[in-house]
Design a protein that fits this description.
7-stranded mixed β-sheet; Rossmann fold; single chain; binds S-adenosylmethionine; alpha/beta
Length: 211
Amino acid sequence: MPKKIVLNPAYILEAESLNGPVDWAALFGRTAPVQIEIGSGKGTFLVHQAAAFPQTDFLGIEWSAEYCRLAADRIARHRLTNVRMIRTDAADFLRRHVADGTVEMIHLYFPDPWPKRRHHKRRFFSRDNLHQMLRCLQPGGWINFATDHADYYEQARRIAQEAQADGRVETVPFIRPAGAREGEMTGTNYERKYLKEGRAVYTLTLRKSEP
Ligand SMILES: C[S@@+](CC[C@H](N)C(=O)[O-])C[C@H]1O[C@@H](n2cnc3c(N)ncnc32)[C@H](O)[C@@H]1O
C-alpha cells in the first residue's frame, strides 16, 4: 500500500485551497519582501536562508509530497515563522497563483536536468517559464539559478541572452545563499552530493530590468 504522507499544516499552503493569486500579507501575517524557491527538495536552502533573513518571507514549491513534508518538518523544528511550503507544480503555481511584480527573488537550484534530448522541453528553465518568472518579479528582482549540468546551463544561458537582448533582464554576479560553505555555491543537498562526485557547478543570475 502506498505510504500516506501527512503534511505539517502550520507550514503548508494547500494547493487545493487556492483560488487566484496568493495574498502574501495574509499568508505570512505581515507585509515583507517575498522570495520563492522552486524545487526545494529537503529544504536545506530554506532553513538557512530564512534564519539568516528574518525580515523576508519564503515560499518553497516542491512537487514531491515526501520532500515537501521533510522540508516542512525541518522548518517547524527550527521554529521559522517566515517560511511556507506548497506541494505542487511550480510552473502551474506561478501562472495561476502569483500576481505580477509581487516577488523579490526566485531561487532555482539544481532543477531536474532531463538529460535526454526528447525530454529537454520538460526542463524548468524554458522561455515560457522565464516569461512567467519575470512577470512575478518586481522590477530589479532576481532569478538565482545553479545546475551541475553543462547542457542545461547552456540552454538557460541562451534563453537569458535573448531576454537580455530584448532589455528584459541583465546578467549579474551569482548571489551566494547563506547556507553555502567554503567551496560551495548554494549549500543545497544536491550540490553537496555533486561536489563529492567531482562535478562542476554552473550558475546564472538575472536581474529584471527596471522600466
Ligand atoms: C534535483 S532536485 C534538487 C533539490 C534541491 N533544490 C537541491 O539542490 O538539493 C529537484 C527537485 O525539484 C523538484 N521538482 C521537479 N519538478 C518540479 C516542479 N515542476 N515543481 C516543483 N518542484 C519540482 C523535485 O521533486 C526535486 O525535489
